[in-house]
Amino acid sequence: MSKLAIHGGEPIREEMLSYGQQYIDNEDIQSVVETLKSSFITQGPKISEFEEEIANYVGAEYAISFSNGTAALHAACYAAGLNFGDEVITTPITFAASANCALYVGAKPVFVDIDNNTYNIDPKKVSAAVTEKTKAIIPVDFTGQPVEIEEIQEIARKKNLVVIQDAAHSLGATYRKKKIGSLADMTMFSFHPVKHITTGEGGAIVTDSKQYAEKLRLFRSHGITRTQLLNNEGPWYYEMQDLGFNYRMTDIQAALGISQLKKLNSFIDKRRSIAELYNQSFNNMNGVIIPYQAPNTGSSWHLYILRLDLKTFSVGRREIFEALRAENIGVNIHYIPVYKHPYYQRIGYKPGICPIAEQWYEEVLTLPLFPTMSEKDVQSVLEGVWKVLTYYHS
Ligand SMILES: *Cc1c(COP(=O)(O)O)cnc(C)c1O
Prior knowledge:
Elements: H1 26-36, H2 45-58, E1 62-66, H3 69-79, E2 87-90, H4 97-104, E3 108-111, H5 123-129, E4 134-138, H6 149-159, E5 162-166, E6 174-175, E7 178-179, E8 186-190, E9 203-207, H7 210-220, E10 224-225, E11 239-240, H8 251-261, H9 264-282, E12 288-289, E13 297-298, E14 304-308, H10 317-326, H11 342-346, H12 355-361, E15 364-367, H13 375-393
Parallel strand pairs: 2-3, 2-4, 4-5, 5-8
Antiparallel strand pairs: 1-9, 6-7, 6-13, 8-9, 10-11, 12-14, 14-15
Helix pairs in contact: 1-8, 2-8, 3-4, 3-7
This protein binds pyridoxal-5'-phosphate.
């Protein structure tokens, strides 16, 4: 057996392979350059073109773009009418923004434990967590595998709650053959460079509701409108009807997004085929659990997560993590349960709220996965993981 790089051996690869990365080609660059040379670099025609294409792609009536996915979530909380004292149910296994957006509007995130197989929020526990104060549910399609969204919408319908699906991981994914973005009251996508397509920074909410769409547009532009005015003092007139923000995407970003969207399906195909290669290989490995896929979901594979059966290894997850990094395999951990962060602890959340999620967090490793990984890159991940995990099995 070859010596581990962490013990001074030769690393599996010469350069660090990151866990995620964007792909920008000449067409993308051309598209951005054309917009830079045009008369609008923000609030021009590219924004509405991008929004229309996103809405068409996912099968929603409206798409409203934002400066980033977090701003989009904030706006969705506003549009849902969330306010001080309201409770919002979400998962602890997500990026902090899924819960932070509730805090932005004065509402309280309520963390509900995950399903031990899908790693998504457990719909049965969602039902049990609904109180008189609950106003919304923010489920997350963690890793790109859709949450049981129809079940969650059903709970919401019965209890009069709004569902804001955090689909930052799941652009292009399907639930019962329907595209994510066509199923929840509002659905958020992120266009951060590690996500499926990028606009640098960027995000969107898609919805079928005209009322939500109008509120979302108002919120992203200072609460200012030129239509549906309460008064009209003349052709110059506009009104600030509520306290909003400047959360707009630029036309430069939208131009990049339009060009990226053309490649989205091929990006997803590539992610799926890499995940398949990982599955085939790690299915035969002792002490690891490959990502379970629920039968009625088609993941778009934002993340590939291996779960370790730590009692079969001679060291802990940290040593395995460090040994893989030493091999230049850019493993990561997604995510630290949100309420364990110092800020959440400071505002009163105690450890132990979601025991399955906390246990799960100790056992997982995210492997590199992005569409431009070469066959050699994929091979190096397989070899690196086998090398390190086999070593620590002995
Ligand atoms: C990336 C991400 C966000 C936030 O999106 P940004 O565009 O980075 O603001 C929210 N939720 C999840 C689950 C994410 O992965």
